[in-house]
């Protein structure tokens, strides 16, 4: 059932968050680490809906720090400490699982997160299959910008390969006689790619 899947996903993400905390907390200057609150499954045999979930109530401003499809960059996420540490958590999990798994949809109050999602590659990861499209992993790779917390953890930048390719294409276009047409084509391709991402759900 969806409820059981939801429990399984959140508690799997919680285990990764605990490992992340164990690695990040001892680092000088890292400070508080986001935690994913536990979600408990209760069975109510007499009820019409036999399974329900129970979790701690979060009081305060509820913020979406990472959006499922990566299109939206909200300022609370980009500029807040919790938002940056959530993005670093995503990068850390991505690196730890060799790009096979990504915790998405990080949201909550301050450093306490709930209702998260997990994207895995189609085949899953170590017998676990996520509840989000694997295209989120590709989008994360393309859109993630490392911050100081990524640097503190020594995470490898995901941008280097893209930059190398970009430099190579820009030098090639200079050698071509009609470089203006080449330049015009590049943003058009980028636009089409963006439309493709936004239309995919």
UniProtKB/TrEMBL annotation:
Subcellular location: Basolateral cell membrane
Region (Disordered): 161-201
EC number per UniProt: 2.7.11.1
SUPFAM superfamilies xref list: Protein kinase-like (PK-like)
Biased composition range(s): Polar residues: 170-182
Record's keyword terms, sorted: Cell membrane, Disulfide bond, Immunoglobulin domain, Kinase, Membrane, Repeat, Serine/threonine-protein kinase, Transferase
GO CC terms in record: basolateral plasma membrane
The name this protein goes by in its record: Alpha-protein kinase 2
Organism: Eulacestoma nigropectus (wattled ploughbill)
